[in-house]
Structure formats: structure tokens, C-alpha cells
């Protein structure tokens, strides 16, 4: 049984095979290339909230079909600072060539997507076009479980905090990606990445009402009204806590695997352990709403 909900839901339109104790589930019996019935979409939404990460194997999708699948869950929200795939302004291609030797890989540190925005994305839809035979897995960490594992005192402290998020450490002029190390990606560093956005340290899931620890190593840079230096020790504590193994979900990709993850309740990381092999993924993100904390 998934640790995500105490009583697992039942599904009429497809089968669900849970993956890990912390979440993740394979959806069996859905062809994502075809238009989906409203009932199937409603159940996929429920499965996403229950398991945090859902995936479908052996899908054969064009970029337009992947976008159409993702639009079942809301309007698409393009990723800033990265040039989109030609002809598909809402889609980005994550590529690492077999001959790339850099230590850095795209998405290689724990993060949730685009939390530097006022309305961070609801979900990310990632499709594997080419995957290493071994390696190149993605890890997620269930941040509802991370919140629930905090002590009562720490929960109370976290609930009172506001966190400032910014893309500056990744896409700012001095950011990780500014020196064009990831040559296969089309990243455009910019001063626009220096902007900051305030979010609650604990957010409430708008569909389930569950509480989520909402920080990450990449974009959460400080607490409101504090310096980065002052914030660092407690942020580091939350970040280390949030990636504990018992909160994690791990997926091995095969070409044609289509994944949808709840970006509100999870963090993720692309494992960089496949030197000498090519990995190509197409990504679209689905618009979200403003994070809030319901006391
Ligand atoms: C990302 O969206 O951060 C990349 C995930 C991956 O490539 O596995």
C-alpha cells in the first residue's frame, strides 16, 4: 500500500500498480496518444494526488500528442530561461550526449520545478525518447511525508515561516548554468532570474488538504526578512530532512515511458550516473496556483 493515502482509492478506467512505499504508481491500460474520456482524466488526477508520481510505459507519442495529454490536467506553462523545442514553445528537450563529460547534469540537485514563479507549476510531464540501458533514473521525494515526519515543535516553526525563492543560483548571470556547461541544452542565463518570490514554508495541497514541506536546495534561497547567511542553517536542516530515503520514489526509464508528477507535493532529482550513454527527454509543465497555508 502506498504511504501517500491510508486507504488506497479504486479505479475503474485503468489498473494501478504502486511502485514504492512513499508513492509512485504505474498506470496500466491507458494510451496517452489518444483523446481521453473525462472519467479517465478524473481518475488520473486522483491517482496523481494519491501516488504523487504516475507513469505509463511503452507510449508512442509525438510532441503534439504529449502536449495534448498534459493539457488534460490544465493549461501548459512554458519553462523560462531555456529555449524551447523548435516549433513547440511549451516544450523543452532535456538532452545529455554520450560524449558529455561535465559533472553537472540538468536537474541534478533536489528541487521542485519553477518554484521561483508566483504560481509554481502544478505538475510536470516528462517523456523518455532515449534512455540509458542502465542509469539515468529520476528520484522524487514525497514532501507530505517530509512534513509529517517533523516534530510538533518543528512543524509549528515551519508553519510560521515564509521562504524566498529565486532562479538566480541556476539561471542568473553568475548561476550554475551561466557558463554554458550543458552544451546540449539551450539555456539562456538572465538578470531576470534575480527576482525573488515569497511562498509559505509549509503549503496546503489544494486538492487533498494535506500539508507539504515546501523548500528545496535550488530555488529556496532564504527566509523572508532574513539574510541568506542567517537562513542557511535551518534551510539546510529542512533540505537534508526532505530527502530522507523513506520519502523517496525511484523510477528506471525505458524509451516511451511517460511520467506525470505532482510538483506541489514532491521534489525530484535526475541521477547523473550514465556517462557514455545518451539520454533525451521531452518536458512540458502544467500551470499551477499560488501556494497557500491553511492553518
Ligand atoms: C527535471 O525536470 O528536473 C529533469 C528530470 C529528469 O531529467 O529526470
Give your account of this protein's structure.
By secondary structure, this protein is an alpha+beta fold. It has a single domain (8-286), classed as 4-Layer Sandwich (Double-stranded beta-helix), CATH 3.60.130. The chain has six helices and 15 strands. Strands 1-2-3-13-5-15-4 form a seven-stranded mixed beta sheet, with helices on one face. A three-stranded antiparallel beta sheet has the order 12-6-14. Strand 9 and strand 10 form a beta hairpin. The longest helix has 15 residues, at 228-242. The chain is globular, with a radius of gyration of 18 Å. The two termini are 29 Å apart. The model is unreliable at 1-6 (pLDDT under 50).
Structural class: alpha+beta
Q: Counting H and I runs of at least 4 residues, what is the number of helices?
A: 6
What is the H/E string? EEHEHEEEHHEHEEEEHEEEE
Bound molecules: succinic acid
Strand proportion:
25-35%
Instruction: Estimate the helix proportion, in percent.
Output: 10-25%
- CATH homologous superfamily placement: Clavaminate synthase-like
Shape from CA axes? globular
Give the strand line-up of the largest sheet.
1-2-3-13-5-15-4
The count of β-strands is 15
Question: Secondary-structure map with pairings?
Answer:
Elements: E1 15-20, E2 23-28, H1 38-51, E3 53-56, H2 63-71, E4 92-96, E5 123-130, E6 138-142, H3 143-148, H4 152-159, E7 162-166, H5 168-171, E8 196-200, E9 202-204, E10 211-213, E11 220-223, H6 228-242, E12 248-251, E13 258-262, E14 266-270, E15 279-286
Parallel strand pairs: 2-3
Antiparallel strand pairs: 1-2, 3-13, 4-15, 5-13, 5-15, 6-12, 6-14, 7-8, 7-11, 9-10
Succinic acid (SIN) is lined by residues 94, 106-107, 113, 124, 138, 268, 270, 281, 283.
